[in-house]
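We were asked to recover a plausible sequence for a given structure. The inputs and outputs are reproduced exactly as logged, with field labels preserved.

PROBLEM: sequence recovery
POSITIONS: 395
GIVEN STRUCTURE:
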């Protein structure tokens, strides 16, 4: 059997973080900036002081500020959608193959904005700026932990809206994103229809289905049973890395597909000479790769932030409506991209969203993303649909 290699583990870790990209000599060099608000009142009425989120932009804002496109990130993502922070970076942002000069989201035409969300998962990444449970509560001088107010997808959008308006932008040429980024995009188009001309929702549906609500609860479960989580009070102590690693392993597996598993690993052993049938500790390559990739992610992530993201996704319904009623608020021209192999937002849910939008009179186009990566097709597998995206944005 083939041995486990560092290259294999690195590639798997990269895939799970959805930050893989092909490097080019002409990669855009981008600057990470910080947007600050003295305070923000959540949709539940709680006030958060000294809110900060990171953001970056690609292209140039035109004179009448009419060419801005907002890109929203997925559950485990960041604002780093394209380009590199330095020429020496190993890989560019996750949608670099779509965003840039002459690409589908053409930065010769558009000014593309991307921001970190509140409670962003990647608190250990020095280039991520976010306010959440790991942040210092200015009233106590200590981390909020689980005293941080619960936040929603709508709260993410409201902070982004303040960022966009701070730039003098009154209308967005388009709002778009994959997975949780798609949820934010739906919310933008429903709650701020006067600001959104086009909507591109990728691998996402108009509300969290009960099955998804249950699944993301399963994502969170390993953290909650890790003794080191300690009710969320672990700052300054040893964090619950074991629980967080197992949580990210579940997310990683569900975000892929069995076709990916068969093609990438088959039944290969993790280590040569260590037959999984000979000892319990002997593993298959897919087991070892999942563990290593998830541990790498856990090292730069925060368990409480993970739990807050779970709650934000569970409670999502477009425009705060029930049974897709909130979709009726959307007026923007809409393009919905989905994949038949998606195990997070199955295609039937997405098709229900498409039909609900059409029944309310919204102009909707849709297309399938083909590939073996399941949900992740919508992050790393959109190249074949790049012309379709470019044409839609140009209409």
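RECOVERED SEQUENCE:
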């Amino acid at each position: 059997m083939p041995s486990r290699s560092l290259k294999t583990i690195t590639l798997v870790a990269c895939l799970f973080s959805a930050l893989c990209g092909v490097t080019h000599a002409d990669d855009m060099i981008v600057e990470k900036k910080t947007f600050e608000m003295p305070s923000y009142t959540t949709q539940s009425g709680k006030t958060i002081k000294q809110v900060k989120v990171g953001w970056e932009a690609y292209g140039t804002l035109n004179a009448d500020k009419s060419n801005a496109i907002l890109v929203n990130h997925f559950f485990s993502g960041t604002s780093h959608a394209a380009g590199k922070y330095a020429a020496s970076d190993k890989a560019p942002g996750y949608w670099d193959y779509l965003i840039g000069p002459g690409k589908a989201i053409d930065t010769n035409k558009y000014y593309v904005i991307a921001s970190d969300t509140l409670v962003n998962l990647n608190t250990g990444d020095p280039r991520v700026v976010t306010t959440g449970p790991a942040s210092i509560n200015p009233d106590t001088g200590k981390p909020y932990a689980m005293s941080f107010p619960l936040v929603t997808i709508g709260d993410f959008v409201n902070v982004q809206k303040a960022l966009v308006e701070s730039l003098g932008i009154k209308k967005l040429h388009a709002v778009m994103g994959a997975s949780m980024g798609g949820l934010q995009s739906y919310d933008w188009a429903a709650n701020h229809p006067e600001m959104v001309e086009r909507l591109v929702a990728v691998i996402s549906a108009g509300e969290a289905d009960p099955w998804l609500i249950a699944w993301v609860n399963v994502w969170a479960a390993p953290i909650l049973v890790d003794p080191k989580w300690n009710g969320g009070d672990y700052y300054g102590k040893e964090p619950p890395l074991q629980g967080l690693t197992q949580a990210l392993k579940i997310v990683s597996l569900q975000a892929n597909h069995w076709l990916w598993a068969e093609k990438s690993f088959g039944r290969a052993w993790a280590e040569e000479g260590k037959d999984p049938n000979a000892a319990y500790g002997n593993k298959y390559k897919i087991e070892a790769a999942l563990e290593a990739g998830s541990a790498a992610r856990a090292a730069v992530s925060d368990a409480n932030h993970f739990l807050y993201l779970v709650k934000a996704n569970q409670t999502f319904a477009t425009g705060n409506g029930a049974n897709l009623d909130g979709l009726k608020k959307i007026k923007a021209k809409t393009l919905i991209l989905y994949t038949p192999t998606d195990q997070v937002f199955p295609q039937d849910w997405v098709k229900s969203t498409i039909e609900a939008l059409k029944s309310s009179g919204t102009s909707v186009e849709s297309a399938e993303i083909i590939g073996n990566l399941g949900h992740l097709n919508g992050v790393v597998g959109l190249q074949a649909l790049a012309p379709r995206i470019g044409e839609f944005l140009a209409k």
